[in-house]
Amino acid sequence: MPKLVFARHGQSEWNLANLFTGWADVDLSEEGTQQAIDAGKLIKEAGIEFDIAYTSVLKRAIKTTNLALEYSDQLWVPVVKSWRLNERHYGGLTGLNKADAAAKHGDEQVHIWRRSYDVLPPAMPHDDQYSAHGDRRYAHLEDSLIPDAENLKVTLERALPFWEDQIAPALKDGKNVFVGAHGNSIRALVKQIKHLSDDEIMDVEIPNFPPLVFEFDDNLQVTNEYYLGK
């Protein structure tokens, strides 16, 4: 019975500061680092042994993955990094304080940008300081693939090929898989895994801690779902 463990990155410095983060490459806070360590300890206590791990190309997820593997005594497990597991791109909201954005654009509009399934936030200009265009980690991609803004629908469309090409085949082979990623990229994959409607996924929240576990049968149907330590 293969297991898939999702760990949203620990609290980041921008989570702490209440800023829209998206593809901005910010670090873990002190609390976030401890959350990642504690995630590893919970994995070890649960006796879950991984065959492969996947993460994004953003350091808050990479560090969470490394710490979780280290503190579960599995730092040797192969780790694959992919931009397809990046957080949702918040476009022109990136770097803004969420309260300031609400004061500027109105609570209702910001709520729609944050929580609707298919409404895009304002696009980020290519010359913005947080733009991914020109970032070396995305140099292998066609420029048209690099987003300027994303909603959850687009995030799923971006993450789905990685699920189909990498994660799902590993699970079908009976491997236990760790995914250290982000709130919205994990939500997108949870929508796919649980066959949730567009409305149902909007009520799903992924906490920074603890890790979320799925167990599957041979046909990748969910047989169990739970948070470690709960």
Automatic annotation (TrEMBL):
Keyword Isomerase set for record: yes
Source domain of life: Bacteria
Catalytic residues identified in the record: H9 (tele-phosphohistidine intermediate), E87 (proton donor/acceptor)
GO MF annotations in UniProt: phosphoglycerate mutase activity
E.C. numbers: 5.4.2.11
SMART domains from the UniProt entry: PGAM
List of residues binding substrate: 8-15, 21-22, 60, 87-90, 98, 114-115, 183-184
Keywords attached to this entry: Gluconeogenesis, Glycolysis, Isomerase
Keyword rRNA-binding appears in the UniProt entry: no
Database matches in InterPro entries: His_Pase_superF_clade-1 (IPR013078), His_PPase_superfam (IPR029033), Phosphogly_mut1 (IPR005952)
Biological processes per GO annotation: gluconeogenesis; glycolytic process
Biochemical pathway: Carbohydrate degradation; glycolysis; pyruvate from D-glyceraldehyde 3-phosphate: step 3/5
Site (Transition state stabilizer): H182
Reactions performed catalytically: (2R)-2-phosphoglycerate = (2R)-3-phosphoglycerate
Pfam families in UniProt: His_Phos_1
Family: Belongs to the phosphoglycerate mutase family. BPG-dependent PGAM subfamily.
HAMAP family registered for this protein in UniProt: PGAM_GpmA
PANTHER family associated with the record: PHOSPHOGLYCERATE MUTASE
Function: Catalyzes the interconversion of 2-phosphoglycerate and 3-phosphoglycerate.
Protein name stated in the entry: 2,3-bisphosphoglycerate-dependent phosphoglycerate mutase
Biological source species: Lactococcus fujiensis JCM 16395
Name of encoding gene: gpmA
